[in-house]
Amino acid sequence: xxxxxxxxxxxxxxxxxxxxxxxxxxxxxxxxxxxxxxxxxxxxxxxxxxxxxxxxxxxxxxxxxxxxxxxxxxxxxxxxxxxxxxxxxxxxxxxxxxxxxxxxxxxxxxxxxxxxxxxxxxxxxxxxxxxxxxxxxxxxxxxxxxxxxxxxxxxxxxxxxxxxxxxxxxxxxxxxx
Length: 177
Known about the structure:
Layout: H1 2-47, H2 63-74, H3 79-95, H4 105-108, H5 125-134, H6 139-153, H7 160-170
Helix pairs in contact: 1-3, 2-3, 6-7
């Protein structure tokens, strides 16, 4: 009887752990989607030639910087973290390059901005590609592939690679070919 009870207990634990992992995955997917939205806005601000100045607690600083830091602090982040995020935002809007890692200020400073020089580590291509492929359960990538295929059939592009280049350009990226 004791063995049966242990197996049932472990099975219940397994169900509980699986539920937690499912919830964690949903949270990670939502976080990824929210960060992508922020990066699209960053690119828009860059295109509009927005300049983000300095934060000042006395209200004499840049209104964008002040609104950014104050909202992050109000949301529960420390003032230091909010100011680090401001540095990342300022650089990203200036360069038009999306932020890859908002937490990167602790371990890499401005290297957290996509394409920054000196970024350490090297991911395998599949590790970089997988999140894009799985975005919105694969629907986003499938839609892009269909658009590239249509453009190819309509002779708007000559190669699939060119289709990806055109896509990134339409999103505000500068592609060195």
